[in-house]
Design goal:
There is one protein chain. The chain is mainly alpha-helical. 69% of the residues lie in helices and 10% in strands. The chain is built from 3 helices and 2 strands; from the N terminus they run αααββ. A hairpin with a 5-residue loop joins strand 1 and strand 2 (92-96).
């Protein structure tokens, strides 16, 4: 694999690890342009595929983490917008409140 491709794969990896999707996307586009301009022979393809598989795994893990964080935020907002009470037998009752957004005093 050429130095340019190795450097670009490293930059994409660094952007994904730092949580910077905008930079990662720019670097991916740069990698595609470089590969299209220089061409990719069989040896380069064989060396590039494991690195691209790792980048796909990192991107998928990043997406999964972002989705989990969004779900947690939704759960927090829902909990803040509801009143949870328990009766004498321990049954939980959830009542929605009219608050437009959670407020802390």
């Amino acid at each position: 694999m050429s130095r340019a491709l190795t450097r670009q794969v490293g930059q994409i990896r660094a952007a994904l690890l730092s949580g910077d999707p905008h930079t990662a996307l720019i670097r991916i586009e740069d990698l595609v342009r470089t590969a299209a301009r220089q061409g990719v022979d069989a040896g380069t393809r064989a060396a590039l595929e494991p690195a691209l598989a790792e980048l796909r795994d990192l991107a998928q893990a990043s997406l999964s983490g972002a989705q989990q964080a969004a779900e947690q935020v939704r759960a927090i907002i829902q909990a803040a917008r509801s009143l949870q009470t328990y009766d004498s037998q321990g049954r939980k009752t959830v009542t929605a409140t009219r608050a437009a957004s959670p407020q802390r005093f």
